Amino acid sequence: MIKAAIVGISGPELTQTEAQQLRAHQPAGIILFARNILTPDQLAALMADLAAVLPADAALLVDQEGGRVARLRPPHWHAHPPAADIGALYARNPSHGLRAAWLTGALIGLDCAAAGFTVACAPVLDRRMPHGHGVIGDRAFSDAPADIALLARAVAAGLLAAGVQPVGKHAPGHGRATLDSHLALPIVQDNDLDADLAPFTANRDLPWMMTAHIRYPTWDAALPATLSPTIIASIIRGRIGYQGVLVSDDLAMHALTGAPADRATAALQAGCDVALYCPGDLEGTSQVLAAVPPLTPAATARLAAARALAQTKRLALDAATLAAERKDLMQ
């Protein structure tokens, strides 16, 4: 019985207690952060320990967008430009920008795949808005929906070419938020959000998308998107038309309130396929894994389709050649 949750662990080694916990309550996947990643050898040992206790098809996630959101970093892994730099190149030279976006996705994917990750939490589909909080900032390609859509699709295609599943985030759009949802609940009061939805709609065939912990009163006066059956059904599944794996953003973020287990079950009841709980604290993780139900048949099928897509799209790639080409383009 695989639980509808993806969880974090506490440090660079899998503790005996964590291993017992993961055996007893099999999660759909694990997400790793900087606290878990030191060197390639250490990470390989951790991945082997995780493989010994996780379900065979468990998703192995990492936040790896490039720029300031990167858990795999030099000197052991490639450095990658932030999305805004790729967007700026696209504004100067569209063909170079699109190629740099694909190359970045492929290089991120090669690093992730070599380390054992199957899912990279990228690309960002949010708009970069002048009044928006800097938590998005240079993580966004542009303020122009059409440009974001094209560049995000190119990054996603590069990730898939490396055999890694991309995650579009943060549906239905984080760019207008004036607060950081890690710290507080943003409220987006705008009534016309069609432009914000456009990059998500253009990429509705991505294998994964991640929800936003943001309240949009024009759609739901009470609940943030992650916990809103209305927004997930009517906007994300409806207007955007997204039918792939829908994962919550980290449910430990301070935009949300209540016990971890309550947050996780509420996100699943709202329509998320998988609840994401990242901190790696034993008590909170235990609560989440004990509380969440098994994956639904629909979620299981979506996860299988995501794995199959990455396998189908995978190409033979040479990282050194791709890195040299990107360096020339980005100069």
Integer count of domains: 1
Radius of gyration using CA atoms only? 18 Å
Biggest β-sheet strands, sense, barrel: 8 strands, parallel
The name of the CATH architecture is Alpha-Beta Barrel
- The number of distinct helices, counting runs of at least 4 residues, comes to 11
At the first level of CATH, the class is Alpha Beta
Strand order of the main beta sheet, please? 9-8-7-6-3-2-1-10
Briefly note the structural class of the backbone: alpha/beta
Q: What are the segments in which pLDDT stays under 50 over at least 5 consecutive residues?
A: none
The proportion of strand residues reads: 5-15%
Explain what you see:
- With 331 residues, the chain is of the alpha/beta class.
- The chain is globular and about 50 Å long.
- The protein has helices spanning 16-24, 40-53, 83-92, 94-115, 145-161, 194-202, 229-239, 260-270, 282-291, 297-313, 319-330, and strands spanning 3-7, 27-32, 59-62, 64-66, 69-70, 119-120, 165-171, 208-211, 245-247, 275-277.
- The protein has an eight-stranded parallel sheet, sandwiched between helices.
- The longest helix has 22 residues, at 94-115.
- Helix 2 links the parallel strand 2 (27-32) and strand 3.
- The protein has one domain: TIM Barrel (Alpha-Beta Barrel), CATH 3.20.20.300.
- Helix content is 43%, strand content 12%.
- The protein has eleven helices and ten strands.
Question: Could you give a short description of this structure?
Answer:
This protein is of the alpha/beta class and about 325 residues long.
What keywords describe this structure?
two-stranded antiparallel ribbon; 43% helix; alpha/beta; 11 helices; 10 strands; globular; TIM Barrel; 331 residues; 8-stranded parallel sheet
